[in-house]
Amino acid sequence: MTSAADARLLGRLRRAGCVFAEDELAELRRWASDAAELTAWVDRRVRGEPVEHLVGHVRFGDLDLAVGAQTFVPRQRSLLLAKTVSRLIGHRRRPVVVEPFCGVGPIAAHVAATHRESTVFATDVDPEAVRLASRNVGIGRVRCGPGLSCLPAELRGRIDVIAAVPPYVPESAADLLPHEARDHEPAAALFGGGADGLDHVRSLLAEAPDWLTDGGTVAVELNIGQLAAARTAARAEGLSPVCVVDEVSVVDEVGDVVTDGDGQTALLVAELSQRTPV
Ligand SMILES: C[S@@+](CC[C@H](N)C(=O)[O-])C[C@H]1O[C@@H](n2cnc3c(N)ncnc32)[C@H](O)[C@@H]1O
Predict the structure, then answer these.
(1) Beta-carbon neighbour count of residue 240 at 10 Å?
(2) Is 107 in contact with 78 (CB distance < 8 Å)?
(3) Are 208 and 202 in contact (CB under 8 A)?
(4) Does the Cβ of 125 fall within 6 Å of ligand 1?
(5) What mean pLDDT comes out for the span 161-169?
(6) What is the pLDDT of residue 277?
(7) Is the sign of the CA dihedral 47, 53, 57, 58 positive or negative?
(8) Which of 9-23, 105-119, 245-259 has the lowest mean pLDDT?
(9) Whole-model pTM over 0.85
(10) Where in the chain is the domain with CATH 3.40.50.150?
(11) Distance, CA 129 to ligand 1 centroid (Å)?
(12) CA-based angle 89:68:139, to the nearest 5?
């Protein structure tokens, strides 16, 4: 494509309000098979479709993950959770890690790629997400079903880390979402249920103790304003919030992991206390 044609496409993206127009054009060009497809994608981008849905890929850390037009696009902020999981399993020889609510499976894919001796599973209720996560994480590693109930039974009591980005936006905050998310991602992937958006988080925290090994950990991405309620829910299930510090995170005054990036994302990290031997 000529530089004049490129400049026209760039101008269209800029006028449509794409703040990172040059990066977006470079990404569209990277995956387009020819100039006609590139132009068609710019048309659709100008109408609001996310770049990742158009090209079918998203960069997550060092990985190129497959995404689909009907699936949630993993956010860069979730690298905080991926890196925290690495930190949590760092000292274990053959860790077992599960990503429920996996979407296309960014956390599970990150662990599978960086800890080759690990056993990784992921689950989601959406069959299209499961299909794409299987490509990203590995065939046979992704189960279709709610929460943890569809995992192989032999994992019960054996999981070292359960790491999740469940839907956690309260319905009342729908207007605050970027229009790309509201218009192009499934509502079931965004809204967490309950007045505070934490219904999925609470159900995961209730299920987790049966599946975790002694001293196992559940790590959940949330909005920073939801942390206090999530911490209370974790304690009610016998899980103790713990403090994990690494190079990508900072810790607030009560020991929860929060990102120093957008100031909104936080992690609840809670551990199953040692069970009393029978
Ligand atoms: C916010 S998206 C996160 C996906 C992925 N963890 C990521 O960060 O890209 C939440 C995912 O939860 C799935 N989901 C919604 N309700 C569910 C449920 N009851 N049980 C399991 N998964 C569910 C959605 O299909 C969606 O893929």
Answers:
(1) 13
(2) yes
(3) no
(4) yes
(5) 97
(6) 44
(7) positive
(8) 245-259
(9) yes
(10) 76-272
(11) 8
(12) 50
In this structure, which residue's CA is closest to atom 13 in ligand 1? Answer: 101
Helices 127-137, 106-114: axis angle to 10 degrees equals 10
Q: Are 207 and 222 in contact (CB under 8 A)?
A: no
Q: What's the gap in Å between 89 CA and the centre of ligand 1?
A: 23
The answer to whether the CB of 27 is under 6 A from ligand 1 is: no
For 76-272, CATH number? 3.40.50.150
Q: Please tell me the predicted confidence (pLDDT) of residue 3.
A: 83
* Residues sharing a CB contact under 8 Å with residue 264, sequence separation 6 or more, in sequence order: 223, 224
User: Is any ligand 1 atom within 6 A of the Cβ of residue 213?
Assistant: no
Which amino acid, residue 149? S
**pLDDT reported for residue 157:** 97
155 within 8 A of 208, measured Cβ to Cβ: no
Q: How sure is the predictor about 204, in pLDDT bands with cuts at 50, 70 and 90?
A: very high
Q: Report CA-CA distances (Å) from 59 to 50, 55, 78, 90, 222.
A: 13, 11, 12, 23, 21
Q: Where are the beta strands (DSSP E) in the chain?
A: 57-60, 63-66, 96-99, 119-124, 142-144, 159-164, 212-223, 239-241, 249-251, 257-259, 265-272
Task: With H, G, I as helix, E, B as strand and everything else as coil, classify residue 274.
Answer: coil
Which helix (DSSP H) or strand (DSSP E) does residue 108 occupy?
helix 106-114
Cβ(211) – ligand 1 distance below 6 Å = no
* pLDDT for the residue 254: 57
